[in-house]
Amino acid sequence: QVQLVESGGGSVQTGASLRLSCAASGRTINSYVMGWFRQAPGQVREGVAVISRIGGGTSYADSVKGRFTISRDIAKNTVYLQMNGLMPEDTAVYYCAAGAVYSFGRDRYDYWGQGTQVTVSS
């Protein structure tokens, strides 16, 4: 089993940048496909970005493509989400997840962090 802890969220203005971190413990992240999801109050949890086990492949939701970048640092056992050009519609709790299948489906991930809040004001 792997434990995941997100950090780096905060309250920022439109156009700002944030880098979210997902620190893993218990097992190395190179054992898993890693994904970032987000959920606003009353909304479904949606996939934002996915990275392959080694990190050679990445995919992004259309809503964040060109603005967000997912990456791994295996030495630090950490996955990141660099978020640029933030907009109010990006406001949500962001979750890190680990699974065995390269997918945007939340039901395909077995391990989840507690979430970190991102709030973007206009």
Concise account of the structure shown:
The chain contains no helices and eleven strands.
Which key terms come to mind for this protein?
single chain, 122 residues, mainly beta, 7-stranded mixed sheet, 4-stranded antiparallel sheet, 0% helix
Polypeptide structure, described:
This protein has no helices and 11 strands. It has strands at 3-7, 10-13, 18-25, 33-39, 46-51, 58-60, 68-73, 78-83, 92-99, 109-112, 116-121. The strands form 2 sheets. Strands 2, 4, 5, 6, 9, 10 and 11 form a 7-stranded mixed beta sheet that branches. It has a 4-stranded antiparallel beta sheet with strand order 1-3-8-7, with no helix packed on it. Strand 5 and strand 6 (58-60) form a beta hairpin. The chain starts with a strand and ends with a strand.
Helix content: under 10%
User: In total, how many beta strands?
Assistant: 11
Name the poorly predicted regions. none
Q: For the report, how would you describe the main beta sheet?
A: 7 strands, mixed
Give the helix/strand layout.
Blueprint: E1 3-7, E2 10-13, E3 18-25, E4 33-39, E5 46-51, E6 58-60, E7 68-73, E8 78-83, E9 92-99, E10 109-112, E11 116-121
Parallel strand pairs: 2-11
Antiparallel strand pairs: 1-3, 3-8, 4-5, 4-9, 5-6, 7-8, 9-10, 9-11
